[in-house]
Structures are given as structure tokens and as C-alpha cells.
Amino acid sequence: MARYVFRRTIQALPIFFGISVIVFMVIHLAPGSPVDRFRVPRVSPAQIQRLIELYGLDKPILQQYVSWVTTFVQVWRPEAWGYSFLDGQPVLEKVVTRAPATLRLMGTALAVTVLLAIPVGVLAAVKQYSWTDKIITTFATVGYAIPSFLLGIYILFFGGVVLPQWTGGRFGFPLFGMESFGKQGDVLDLAWHLVLPVTSLAIQQISGWARFMRSSMLEVLHQDYVRTAKAKGLPRGRVLGKHALRNALIPVVTLLGLSIPGLLGGAAITETIFSYPGLGSMFVESVGSRDYPVVLALTMLGGFTVVFGNLLADILYGVVDPRIKY
Amino acid sequence: MERVELNREGLVLPATAPNVAADHEEIDRTPVRTYWQLARQRFVQHRLAVIALVVLVVLVALAYIVPLVTGPLFGRTNLAKIDAPATLEAPLGYDELGRNTAVRLMKATQTSLTIGFAAVLIIVGVGSLVGSIAGYMGGIVDNLLMRFVDIVLSLPVLFIILMIVALFGAGNVWVVIIAIGITGWTLAARLIRAEFLALREADFVQAARALGAGHRRIVLRHMLPAAMAPLVVAAALGVADSVITEAALSFLGFGISSPEASLGNMLTNAQEYFYSAPIRAVYPGLVLVLIVLCASFLGDGLRDALDPRQRIGK
Amino acid sequence: MTAGAGTRRGRAGVRTARGVPPASGDGANLLELRGLRTHFFTRDGTVKAVDGVTFEIGNGETIGVVGESGCGKSITAMSIMRLIERPGQIVAGNVVMHGRDLLKLSDEQMRDVRGNQISMIFQEPMTSLNPVYTCGDQIAEAVQLHEGVSRRQAWSRAVEMLQQVGIPDAKRRAGEFPHQMSGGMRQRVMIAMALSTNPELLIADEPTTALDVTIQAQILELMKALRERNKMAIMLITHDLGVVAEMADQVVVMYAGKVVERSDVTTVFERPHHPYTEGLLRSIPRLGERRARLEVIRGVVPNPLNLPTGCLFKRRCPYRMPICDTAPPFQEVRPGQYSRCWLTPEHEPPTVGLSPAPEVAEEEAERLTVAPR
């Protein structure tokens, strides 16, 4: 097991390398230079030249790449990811400060997804063709078709504007932010602020997972071993809950890896809509203001998350399916 | 020898030649149908897909014809008509600058669809190029190309697209199209590769090879058409994905910006009038959901019709 | 000439054809199927997969159910177990065991029959075992359920069963997953699972079809040995007449959802009556016989949505007669031998002035063999 994890991690290294090359190339090929933002009358050409040398922008591209990558991996040094153009803070520190908020948002959304989508999908499959199934399938189809940013706007509007109006201001969700002023560290307050963003982030995920769970369960229900279980005289609950479900869950594990890119993108948009102080909104801000070090760092981090998600899915696959050998 | 008891019908049977004509009618005469006839039959049975196709055709027609007829009306402001209610020539009323919302919505749909179609062209083009080379050549070329696909697949897609659009020129339609296209071709490439790996060994390809057909001819004339089915489905879903991505970009302020109209920037705009005119956020959202829903039903229908074996994991 | 006796019985057969052939009389029947009909209601029409099947299985008797794929033999078995699922439905008939009609039991009562009084093994040992549970676990589950013993006792019973079906090192093997075993081993596990509760009837649906020939023989030997030891009846579904000759006491031949012939195994092999049974027998290659080519039954199984009127086999039948446009009754042609065919016991056409026209039938059959795919 440990050897398998190690081997898969080693196999992921070329992918990291590829991602870093692509990200670096995009930045390098982009018109304009990172120092353009300093080309204002106050800054003399000599100072600009010093900046160019400082960032190594006059060196050959390969050398620039190598020096960037070699510094980037030294995460134990606070300056490894450079300093933000906007406020001069070390990027690493900024990321570490903001990461918990995003992890909390994505983690909660994922947990809600798993807890809701699996039972709902199983229910739809077991009651195939029934009204229950039709209703679930319809909701899942529509939910999957609504882009998360659209849902975000509507949920923001409903939870933050309509609901308070209806209830005469007594009931409503916070419109933005992660915590109320003066209530830092209050768990209930944090959760209260998470309700709307998590809802808008999770609905598309829940829809996708429920549909996948349903079709996976339906496929398993037609397998010979389910017939064997019935022929043994097992009660229906046992046939479904033990023999069918366990097998139907195997392919669902891969969704864990597959849904990470969608969750990341969704988080960026959701955080922006709800002014949630996480890494996603930070990325949107920094890309808008051409804050290269932050953009680079967050894109690499995003790639790392995707690869890590796939790795996790592979490992879990091995855990749930005894046929997989390490 | 004794006679066996017969029932009534048995006794009235003529004792002469067997009733061959009657027997003919019993023979299974299901007509042999061609692939396309069968495909069309399967598609038509898919009621939702047919409805989706009709809705999409109407929507596309409206999106391209209305702006053509009305010309630059979508951007024309009219101070006298700020927030004016609906009339016959403006069924959805006027916005905060006195622009005709319905016309603007159709123009926005056109922009979004155009970007979607163009991006899908790139997706299908790059996807089938990479996929067919990998699948046809096999071996080390296949291995290298697929590693490359793995890398692109591991990119945080929205981050990369945002980065490209922001750094290469926000608001430029072409940058948006290319950014969506070059990050989205991996599914198409994988599908085509899988088809080609199977087709490489197919009898008709072997036959073409035995007849001395060149690589180009084999790929273009024999293999690509046979691998069309999954590509068509991927394209249908690709349009929907691209439209969403474009809308998200414009919504975040990196895509198409005012005065040009796009579904995304109409939404951003509408967000500011949540309190006074919440309905404005509904129109572009509805069109967006309609496009995505229809494309997904259409994709389902096409998949069942063209290639019942194929199931694209979602 | 024995025709007299045969025909007298034949008359009796005609009388009962509407309903049920007489039971063997000694009351030793374990299971009786009476007019069982299982239909599938598909979008294209109703498929009468099992259409009025009647036969009985005596205590400790092995009955072979033979026929081409799609003739309804597996559906019959699934109907006995009440494992038919949508769009299929048992529309008529009785399945009587110990005086109870299984089709009228509550779901809960039926569960107690399944895997306890009647066990079933399937054709595909590769897919019939659950891949995510160990073999021992899957056997012990049935034992624990039906015998009400502890988990530990159930497990040791599972190991014991695995020993009985000839799996070496059973203790260790019980903890292994199905994918770690070969096809033959898995079928042994299936048999162990089926027999772990000492059922009175074992339904074996093509138990050896998916296996290598040498493994087939081993599995058949094993089933024979266990049959003696457990004194159970077996309903053996197969398309392989060799397996029937090896195992069965009684034979039921099915065609297009109906029983077309039934008798004891010796009679079927020595004096088959129904032309379909004849065809099946002729298509077995025999050692030492030189034939230009193996005889096969011409034509294809009729489309279940478009069955011929009258005799269902007439389009493929070499003896085809005009009377075949009328459905033949299921009648006793010789003592203990029932057949659904108009031919007399001596294989002569019935003499109501109906002349056979085999040439025409042959032409028709030729034409049918090149029917569209």
C-alpha cells in the first residue's frame, strides 16, 4: 500500500512538471511584461532596468524557468513563491492565510454532496420508473444544467434579499464575507456564512453525483451476483444495502478526483459572488490586476489539487475494490 | 393405423397442398434498415432530444436573425425609455440605459453561441487531430500524446482560461474562443483515440490497407467517418460547456464587456438592479439554462441514436 | 404392434392436454409446475417466454430441461424462484411444493424458500459471485440467514462445505475473493453456497456451459456425488444432451416457451417422438460415425414477437404437414412419453387424408435459413 502510494506520487511528478511548463509558457507568451505596471512617470528607466534584472527578466527563458521552479519548490522558505505586486506580502504567507477559508468551503460542499447525492441516487435507482425516480432525475438534470455562477447569483438574491423582505428582516442569510465583524472564531457564525456559498457550489455537484450514483446502481442491480444474493433468500434491504451498494460505490470513488477541477472553478466564482475571502476570490482579484506571482502560485496550487484528487481517487479505488492489486 | 383425434380447425383444413401462401405472412419481415435510418429512428424515439433540437433550432434562428434585422439597435441607448415597461417592439422592456432588452438578449445569445460554436471547432479539430494520431500510430507516439493529454487534463481549467484571457487581452472575442478551445479538447481526443485503436484492427481498415491505400486516405476516408459518433456527441456537449465558460468569464469581467452584449455581462449588469428589477437577471439565465439543458438532451439523444454502445461518463 | 396401447394412452393424453398430464401417481412429487406462464411486456409487444409449462419433479429425481437458448428454460427456473423482474411477469399457473403454491406465498415466506428449500446455481460462475466479498463470507451469509446460527458457526459450516465440494486448503480459500479463483473453483463455491442449507431441490442453470470440458466433467461428478449424499432433487437446465444423458432421470424438452416432449431419459435417447427432439439428438456428433456434415436443425428459433400459428416448430420441421397449421396437443404417445406433435407414435402422419409435403417444408426451411440477420 505505502509502496503503491509512493509509486503513484512519483508518477505524478512529470504531470507537475508539465503543468509548470504550460503555466510558465502562458505567462511568458503573454503580451507585456510584469514590470509594465511600474512604467509610470515617477519611476525612472534606470529603476525599471534594475527591476528587470532583479526579476531576472533579461535572462534566457530556460534559465528563468529553472530559477523559478527551483525557488518555487522551496516551500519552507517564506519568500519561495515571491512577493505580491499589490501589497508586497510574501505570496506563500498570503496563500496560507487564505487557504483555510477555501478548504472549509470546498470541504463542506463535498461533504454535503456525498451525504445527499449517494442516498438520493440509490433511491432513484431502486425505484426506477417510479415518481420518486422521475422527480429526482428531473431535479438532477436541471440542477446539473444550471451553471454554478448563475445559481450563485440567484441564491444570493433569494437568501440575502427576498428572504429578509418576506420575513420583515427577521430572517436572512449574510450576503458576503466569511464571518461577522466582532464575531471572529464563532463556529456558528462561520457556518451561517457558509450556507449560501456551499448551497450554490454544491447543487451542481449533488446533481452530477446523484445521476452518476443512480446509473452506477442501476448497472449493478442487473449483475448476476445480485441475482445470486436474491436466490439465496436474502431480504431486499440486505441485497441492496450489502451486495449492490458496495459494488455501485466503487466507480463513484473516481468522481472524487474528477470533481476537483469543477469544485476549484466553482469555488473561484462562488467566492467572488459572495465576497468570500478564500483563494478563489484572491485568484480572480490577482489575475485582474496582473499580480503575476500570486497568479502563478495559485495556478500551480490548483494543478497540485487536481493531481492530488486523482491520486486520492486511485488509492481509494484500491481500498474499495479487492480486485485491484497494488 | 388409427387417426389421431383432431380438433375442429384441424378437420376443416384442405387436404391438398399445404397452405404456403398463408405461411408467408407469418414470416418475420422486419425490413433491413441502413445505419442512418436506424439512427434517425432511434433519435426520433428520444422525445426529449427531439424537443431539445426544436428549441435549439428556434433559439439559434432567433439569435442570428433578430440582430441581423435590427442592426445596431441592441446597443442603442434611449434616455426617454430608461426602465420603460414592455411594449410590442420590446417584449421584455428596456434596461437602465433605455436599451431594448429583448433585442439585446438575442444579440447576447448570438455572441455566446458564436463563441460556443467556434470553441467547439477548435475542440473537435485539436481533439480529433491528437486523438487520431495517437490512435493510429499507437506505440510511443500514442504514449507521449496521452501523457500530454493527462497533463492538460490536470490543469485547473478555469484558472488557466482566466489567466489566458486576462493576460492576452480581456474583452477580445478571439482570445476567449482560443482559451476555451485549447483547454477543452481532451475528451474529444480520448474518444477519437479509443475509436481509432479499435478501428485500426477492423476488417474494412485492414482491407483498405491491403488494397494499398495510403495513411492519409485510410485515416480521412475510412477511419474518421467511422469514429464520428462519439465526436458528434462530444461536440454537442462542448457547445454547452463553452457557452457556460464564456458566460462565467464575462460575468467575472474578463470576457465580453459592455457595450457588446453577452449573456455573462448582461447578468453582471442585472446584478446591480437586484432590488429594483430582479427579473432582469432571469432572462439571460433562462437562455443559458435552456441552451445547456437542450444540448445535454440532444447529446443523450445523439448518443443513443448514433452509437448505442457508447456511454460517456459524466 | 404396440400402436394400440400407445394410442389408447394417446387418447388419454389428448384429454389431459388442455390441463395437466397425469402425475406419476405415487404422490412422490416434490415440485409440480402447472400451466406456468411468464410473459414479458416489452415496448414491441408481449413475449410469451414461458407459455403454459407443466411438469413435475419427483423426490430425489434429476430432471433435465433441454432446449436452445431463448426457449424459456431459464425463465421457467427464475419463475419457480420468483425472481422474474420487470418487464416480466408470471401471469398464470401454479408452482406447488409440499402442497403450497409458491406463487401465492408472501414475499417473506418466499424468501424462506429461496436458498433454503430451493437453491439455484447459475451459468456464469465468473459473474455470479459478488466480487467484493470473500467466498466464505458469501456462503456463511446464506447459512446464517436460514439456519439461525452464529457467525462463527456459519463460517465453519462454509469451510466444511468448501471441503465437501473438493476445494483444497478450504480454510484458507474461504478467506479469498472470487477473483482469486479459477472458473471451476468458483462454480464449486457456487455449489457449496447452494448446498450449504441442505435444499430439497437444486436448480442448476447451465452449470457447466462456461467451463472447460475437463472441468465440466469434474463438476458433474461432484453434483452426482452430492446428489446421492444429500438425497436432493435436481432441475438441470442445459442445451447439452450429453450432460442430460450423464445426469438426468427424466427429460423435458422445451421449444419457444412450451414443453414439446417429456419422458424418461432412456426413451428420449432411444425413441424420441417430437421432430425437434430428434433434431437435437441428430446434431450431436458421435464417435466412429462418419457423416458428410453434422446435421443441424434448419432455420432459426422463431421471433418470440411473431410466433407461427399452429405448431411452433413447423417452419423448421422435416415432417411438416398441412395439419401443422393447427396447434398440436400435448399427448401421451407411449406410456410415460408425452409429445406435442401430430405424428402418430410410429412417426406416421395422422391419417385424415392429410398428406405430408416434406419437399415444400424443406424449401421453406431453406429459405428461412437465409433470412435476414
Describe the structure.
The complex is a heterotrimer of chains A (326), B (314) and C (373). Chain A is an all-alpha fold. Chain A folds into two domains: 59 residues, no CATH class; 225 residues, MetI-like fold, CATH 1.10.3720. Chain B has one domain: MetI-like (MetI-like fold, Orthogonal Bundle). Chain B contains 14 helices and no strands. The N terminus and C terminus of chain B are likely disordered. Chain C is built from 13 helices and twelve strands. Chain C is of the alpha/beta class. The interface between A and B is large, with 46 and 41 residues.
What CATH first level of the largest domain in chain A would be assigned?
A: Mainly Alpha
The CATH architecture category of chain B equals Orthogonal Bundle
The largest pleated sheet of chain A is described as: none
What letter string, H or E per element, gives the SSE order of chain B?
Answer: HHHHHHHHHHHHHH
Q: What composes the largest sheet of chain B? A: none
Number of helices of chain B: 14
How many independent structural domains of chain A? Answer: 2
How many beta-strand runs of chain B? 0
Rg of chain B, Å, rounded: 28 Å
- Judged by helices, strands and strand pairing, the structural class of chain B is mainly alpha
Q: Would you identify the regions of chain B where 5 or more consecutive residues have pLDDT less than 50?
A: 1-28, 310-314
Encode the helix/strand succession of chain A as letters: HHHHHHHHHHH
What are its keywords?
heterotrimer; B: mainly alpha; MetI-like fold; disordered C terminus; C: 373 residues; alpha/beta; disordered N terminus
Break the fold down into its secondary structure elements and pairings.
The complex is a heterotrimer of chains A (326), B (314) and C (373).
Chain A: H1 2-29, H2 45-55, H3 61-72, H4 91-126, H5 131-145, H6 148-166, H7 187-221, H8 224-231, H9 236-273, H10 279-288, H11 292-320
Chain B: H1 8-12, H2 20-26, H3 35-45, H4 47-70, H5 101-137, H6 139-153, H7 157-169, H8 173-183, H9 186-200, H10 203-210, H11 215-226, H12 228-252, H13 263-271, H14 282-306
Helix pairs in contact in B: 3-14, 4-5, 4-14, 5-6, 5-8, 5-9, 5-12, 7-8, 8-12, 9-12, 10-11, 12-13, 12-14, 13-14
Chain C: H1 3-17, E1 29-42, E2 45-58, E3 62-66, H2 73-80, E4 88-97, E5 100-101, H3 107-113, E6 118-121, H4 125-128, H5 135-147, H6 151-164, H7 170-173, H8 183-195, E7 201-205, H9 213-230, E8 233-238, H10 241-247, E9 250-255, E10 258-264, H11 265-270, H12 275-282, E11 331-334, E12 337-339, H13 358-369
Parallel strand pairs in C: 3-8, 3-9, 6-7, 7-8
Antiparallel strand pairs in C: 1-2, 1-4, 4-5, 9-10, 10-12, 11-12
Helix pairs in contact in C: 5-6, 5-8, 6-8, 8-9
